[in-house]
Amino acid sequence: xxxxxxxxxxxxxxxxxxxxxxxxxxxxxxxxxxxxxxxxxxxxxxxxxxxxxxxxxxxxxxxxxxxxxxxxxxxxxxxxxxxxxxxxxxxxxxxxxxxxxxxxxxxxxxxxxxxxxxxxxxxxxxxxxxxxxxxxxxxxxxxxxxxxxxxxxxxxxxxxxxxxxxxxxxxxxxxxxxxxxxxxxxxxxxxxxxxxxxxxxxxxxxxxxxxxxxxxxxxxxxxxxxxxxxxxxxxxxxxxxxxxxxxxxxxxxxxxxxxxxxxxxxxxxxxxxxxxxxx
Length: 279
Fold this sequence. Notes:
Elements: E1 7-11, H1 24-30, E2 35-38, H2 50-63, E3 66-71, H3 90-109, E4 113-115, H4 127-147, E5 151-155, H5 170-184, E6 189-194, H6 195-200, H7 205-212, E7 216-221, H8 237-246, E8 252-255
Parallel strand pairs: 1-2, 1-8, 2-3, 3-4, 4-5, 5-6, 6-7, 7-8
Helix pairs in contact: 1-2, 3-4, 4-5
């Protein structure tokens, strides 16, 4: 048990950001990792030129890195936005334009998990209208994910850092997961369980794991406080990941933490080099 017993991937949208996007897969590989994940890399557009998609695929392939997870278009992230799919008007349209692009790219690199960030509440918009739009868009996304053999992820964020995001508890995200699965009949919507966000919300992490491990499709970690590497805060991450495994979770664990004041390549001393390559 413990860290060496997990399958880790590196989030290249928060680690190695000192490098251009196309150099990050090789940097992760040089640090000993064989799997990575990404937020949607083109924050300005849901439909980048095919040449840019091809260049990213080549960078992943050349580095020998598996893409374990990819976000759909989510607006300005990092930045003020927390997704687009529940935001009426242009942002929802952009999300829809992205669905097949993201799914096709995922298929081209063997990525089987697509994360759909819900989006913030909008001043003047009826929350019920936003939720109806969200369900509509999540159903489209779940069908596209299913077409390429992928799961659709729904993520809880934390209220202190994302005060306008409505899914700030595990049960809130699980309710959306259940609604999407009921609407599609596909069963491929899953919970993205981020231990950092849940801890920031003050949730009982062991209880969440017990209750929802079976509905969890992806896990992400960072320590708290600070969102740094494991060991920089007070979360018992090694024990919590063991609890997840004991509860039946065998999927990826995404390293979605800030490297601090050092280069990203030096932010992995908590994890033995022999445990970095995903078996």
